[in-house]
């Protein structure tokens, strides 16, 4: 199963350069890296990245993350994937820009729609 992480451009560049990341400031503060399922992505983008340009959407296979990945309740009791270790660049299956559409919302790849 694929799960997804939205990166700001500088965060993505940091992962590319270092080969791993402990996440964005919110991830560091919470002690884990926040991910979303395909069904949760639009709400995550709207809530945490509204109007932001230059984002990168990265897909990661859950099986590659092992026991450090936990599914925990968050918004409205939904279970969200949280990674309790650094994410390695090699674990990213694919990534793509996450542009803003004309309506001001992020435009996700058709495969996720």
Brief characterization of the structure:
The protein is α+β, with helices and mostly antiparallel strands and 113 residues long. It has helices spanning 9-18, 25-30, 41-48, and strands at 2-7, 20-21, 33-34, 55-61, 69-73, 79-83, 87-88, 92-98.
How would you describe this protein?
The chain is α+β, with helices and mostly antiparallel strands and 113 residues long. The protein has one domain (2-104): Protein of unknown function DUF952 (ADP-ribosylation fold), CATH 3.20.170.20. Helices cover 21% and strands 32% of the residues. The protein is built from 3 helices and 8 strands. The strands form 3 sheets. A 3-stranded antiparallel beta sheet has the order 1-4-8. It has a 3-stranded antiparallel beta sheet with strand order 3-6-5. Strands 2-7 form a two-stranded antiparallel ribbon. Strand 5 and strand 6 (79-83) form a beta hairpin. The protein is globular and about 40 Å long.
Q: What's the CATH first level? A: Alpha Beta
Cα-to-Cα separation, first versus last residue: 16 Å
Q: How much of the sequence is in beta strands?
A: 25-35%
Mean pLDDT figure? 95
- Name the helicity range: 10-25%
Specify the CATH homologous superfamily: Protein of unknown function DUF952
The strand line-up of the biggest sheet is 1-4-8
Structural class: alpha+beta
Rg over C-alpha atoms, rounded to the nearest angstrom: 13 Å
CATH architectural arrangement:
Alpha-Beta Barrel
Which sheet architecture does the biggest sheet show? Answer: 3 strands, antiparallel
**Number of helices, counting only DSSP H or I runs of 4 residues or more:** 3
CATH topology: ADP-ribosylation fold
Integer count of domains: 1
Count of individual beta strands:
8
Which stretches are poorly predicted, pLDDT < 50 over at least 5 residues? none
Strand-and-helix sequence, N→C? EHEHEHEEEEE
Shape: globular
